[in-house]
């Protein structure tokens, strides 16, 4: 862990460097006042999450709080929920063009910028939470991410992980592939591409607009995250069938993106603080989601009568077959192909270990409960 004594030595408390350029001349104290006061700066973080949302929304707040705490308030980060400063799906552009300093969101929302962005959140039948952390941190993923986002003037880090997500909420049961034909579902990223390949229709809707869309019948089904977040958005009141497993997001990594000019203006110590804050929240969130999903699944089933369902085998098989094609189509050339190749190589490598470790352990534990 980085402590304040180390940060002082590294210059994070504003002893010269680029941070001074951001001080407001009209409010800069006289010479001789502490550097903490002299170089204080305020940054805005926009998010793709509804206001007050547990888990995802709290992750963004945690990143902000930890940056402020570890810099003794030299860097103050104010967090804005989706729609407060910019709409949810405009967060990336706001940070890229400098109208906001940071964002917290899901990288697959930026697929229009590059077909490779979903690989840094989740892709159908892709990596689990532990696997995507392994790839990004140790398998070359971060370097490729830096190259991709650098094209748009953004520096991004993992800054939360929801773990394995559920397959979604449905108004009607899914008994065969025919039930997917014509289905209107809120599902972003490559999961939406898979649904379209099977005859359904995918619609991108920010989290804060999903419930009303279900209520009015604009959509027939939705995925969001898992029992914890889904409970607070109340989907169970409109769609009683809760399906799993979530083929589309087996371990969703969320990101904190920073305007590149802002990132470059930080001292090395400040950069270390921001990176450490993101890493800390990334690991904290995975444990929190694992526990809270368990608590809220029990509440949904036993207090609200939610009907748990599993996708029929033929549906899962068809989803898997479509997923391979969708993933491959997103990495045909350039940086997209290099990201795809790196992801697939690491997935193949880690899948072998995951199967004989976690997979075998879960099967043995359940068989002997």
TrEMBL record:
GO terms for cellular component: tripartite ATP-independent periplasmic transporter complex. CDD domains: PBP2_TRAP_ketoacid_lactate_like. GO terms for biological process: transmembrane transport. Keywords: Metal-binding, Signal. Substrate binds at residues 165, 186, 223, 249. Coiled coil: none annotated. The keyword Signal applies. One of its GO terms (molecular function) is metal ion binding. The keyword Signal applies. Na(+) binds at residue 224. Residues 1-23 form the signal peptide. The lineage of its organism: Bacteria, Pseudomonadati, Pseudomonadota, Alphaproteobacteria, Hyphomonadales. It holds the Pfam family DctP. This is Solute-binding family 7 protein. InterPro entries: DctP_fam, SBP_TakP-like, TRAP_DctP_sf.
């Amino acid at each position: 862990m980085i402590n304040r004594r180390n940060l002082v030595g590294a210059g994070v408390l504003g002893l010269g460097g680029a941070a001074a350029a951001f001080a407001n001349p009209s409010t800069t104290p006289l010479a001789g006042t502490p550097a903490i006061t002299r170089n204080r700066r305020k940054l805005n973080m926009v998010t793709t999450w509804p206001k007050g949302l547990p888990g995802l929304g709290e992750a963004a707040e945690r990143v902000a709080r930890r940056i402020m705490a570890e810099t003794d308030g030299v860097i103050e980060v104010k967090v804005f929920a989706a729609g407060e400063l910019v709409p949810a799906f405009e967060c990336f552009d706001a940070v890229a063009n400098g109208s906001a300093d940071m964002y917290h969101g899901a990288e697959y929302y930026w697929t229009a910028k590059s077909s490779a962005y979903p690989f840094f959140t989740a892709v159908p039948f892709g990596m689990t939470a532990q696997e995507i952390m392994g790839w990004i941190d140790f398998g070359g993923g971060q370097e490729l991410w830096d190259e991709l986002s650098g094209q748009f003037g953004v520096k991004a880090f993992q800054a939360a992980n929801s773990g394995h997500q559920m397959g979604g909420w449905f108004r009607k049961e899914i008994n065969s592939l025919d039930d997917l034909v014509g289905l209107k579902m809120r599902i972003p990223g490559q999961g939406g591409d898979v649904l379209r390949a099977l005859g359904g229709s995918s619609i991108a809707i920010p989290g804060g607009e999903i419930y009303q869309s279900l209520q009015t019948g604009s959509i027939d089904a939705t995925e969001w995250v898992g029992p914890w977040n889904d409970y607070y958005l109340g989907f169970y009141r409109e769609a009683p069938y809760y399906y799993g497993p979530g083929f589309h997001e087996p371990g969703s990594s969320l990101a904190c993106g920073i305007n590149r000019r802002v990132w470059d203006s930080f001292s090395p110590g400040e950069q270390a603080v921001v990176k450490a804050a993101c890493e800390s929240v990334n690991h904290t969130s995975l444990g929190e989601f694992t526990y809270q999903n368990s608590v809220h699944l029990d509440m949904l089933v036993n207090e609200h009568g939610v009907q748990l369902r599993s996708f029929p085998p033929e549906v899962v098989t068809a989803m898997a077959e479509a997923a391979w094609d969708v993933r491959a189509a997103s990495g045909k050339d350039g940086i997209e192909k290099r990201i795809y190749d790196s992801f697939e190589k690491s997935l193949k490598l880690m899948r072998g270990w995951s199967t004989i470790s976690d997979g075998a352990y879960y099967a043995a534990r359940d068989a002997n409960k």
